[in-house]
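Could you join me in thinking about how sequence relates to backbone shape in a protein? To get us started, please write out a protein record for me. Would you write everything just below, so we can both look at the same thing?
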Amino acid sequence: MAAIDSTHSRPLAGILFILAGMVAISFNDLLIKQLSGGYPLHEMVFVRSGIGILFSLLLVQVEGGWHVLKTPRPGLHALRGLVVVFANMTYFAALAVLPLGEATALYFVAPLFITLLSIPLLGESVGPWRFGAVLAGLAGVAIMQRPWASDTELHVSRLVLLLPVISAFAYAVNQILTRKIGFTSKASAMAVYIQLAFLVVSALFWLVAGDGRFAEGVESGSLIFLLRAWTMPEGVDRWLFLALGCNSACVAYCLSQAYRSANAAVVAPFEYVGLPLAILWGWVFFAEVPQPVVWLGIALILGGGLVVFIRERMRNRPVATARRVNRRY
């Protein structure tokens, strides 16, 4: 497959949008972990998507009106929506029982997957320096999996530790799909499609398991989070649910806009800003401090991301100069 036309790329816009999206994502994770002890995941997803879609529809009006919701690729949008739902469900199931910083660190194999998938699926070139940096980041993720530790030492099952990695791969596939359809659909429209997918899936969860009957006798904290009965939020929790919904619209729009604005290998490294944010929120709100082995994994991932970014900037600098000259004519 040929690479996407580079004349459509706006690196600075993509970087700014991904930074805003990562701040919103870190706030989203904080809210969900805070609420995970009393409410089921599908209830939170339904409420936040119901509120988020209203804001997304307002953005649709800003970006041109109802006609921007029309798409020549409805099947691709539906597939993208289901992939996003799967990525979120698996990650949040792990977030309920893992420390916030650790879950986020494991999840941050996603930008590495994006860089690798951009080679066969988008036709983007990744040189030996960036490929080596990706391998270093993957080594960091492997270290954080702690294959030498027993289940007792981990305090969670191996499957739970793998959930953020599984989620990361699904997220990478989603962003590649976003890049493929980004020039035919507005970011606000793509945000609406994602919110609709969340609403449909969470409503189905409510119909099947909303009374909590499947959570009875279950010991896994992740499964309980998925299958717990719906409960009406009260007091401060109502405002937290509202914040969750508003923030959801921000996340969907920023991520869609980032990956439709710039090359995936340019945008992906900036997602690493979510790591220090997650560690900060975990320390401030949950008194969580990563273990030394987690710090080592984070260092490898951040180091790999920095190399990817530097090499990308070096490779793009002469191209950017040539574009500025061409626009003068």
Summary: Confidence is low (pLDDT under 50) at residues 1-7, 317-329. The chain has 14 helices and no strands.
